[in-house]
Amino acid sequence: MLTEESPGENRLVHSTGRPAAQRSQDAKKAALRASQILSAPNQLTLARMAFLPFILIKLLDGHYRGALILFFLAGVSDGLDGLLARRLGQQTLLGQYLDPIADKMLLSTVFLVLSIVRKIPWKFTVLVFSRDICILLVSGVLYTIAGLRDFRPSIFGKANTLAQLAGVVFVMLFEVTHAKWVWVARLLFLRATFALTIISGLHYVYLVGHRLRVSSTTAEHSAN
Fold first, then answer.
1. Residue 198 pLDDT grade (very low, low, confident, very high; cuts 50, 70, 90)
2. Among the four 2, 9, 85, 126, which has the fewest Cβ within 10 Å?
């Protein structure tokens, strides 16, 4: 005797009727994403991002010693996550994107707050943020239009990041101890940040033009 299936049963059959291979592939992708997030280096990177609100609270409350200690611990976690990724063989695509984002969030936000509390002159912060925003916009446009993905930092960009980091540390340290050598180091690294921000910005424009020409030449050879 034939029985008629209800519409709801038909919908259920069709919705769960994906091939087993497809379901297995989806499960593997989900497991891979979870393993990347749960890897020790990426957990350290996320922990570094968690330091940020506490550092900002300390700065806004004028507790510079506590802010400096937390900032130092965040810096230690930055070096440790890279070391673990290499030693444990856990270098992931997520980590490649997450690590520089965490670094930039931490450094730029602390830089901004130190200007808000009048410890870093605004001219430095405006210049630093203007460069970062321009680089972000240009990178987004070039990726969308030309498919350019090579945005590795130059030697000047790395030097600029180092100068910003040292400048922030010595600005906070000067609020803890007013030693003359700390004042000199603070002034030196802030001026270095100003100069290297301009130099690295101009060098970035040159690098982008060069990489675009290389990409265009490669595309032409591939087409031929």
1. very high
2. 2
Residue 94 and residue 137 in one domain = no
Q: Assess contact for 44 and 81: CB atoms under 8 A.
A: yes
Beta strand ranges found along the chain (DSSP E): none
- 125 and 213 share one domain: yes
pLDDT in tens, 45-82: 777 888 889 999 999 999 999 999 999 988 887 777 66
Encoded amino acid at 85, one letter:
A
Q: What is the pTM of this model?
A: 0.72
* pLDDT score of 182: 95
Total structural domains within the chain: 2
Q: How far is CA 124 from CA 59, 67, 193, in A?
A: 18, 21, 8
73: amino acid identity, one letter: L
- Look up the domain containing 76 and give its range: 35-119
- Per-residue tokens: 90: 């856990």
Residue 147, CA distances (Å) to 21, 141, 152, 202, 205 in order: 32, 9, 15, 22, 17
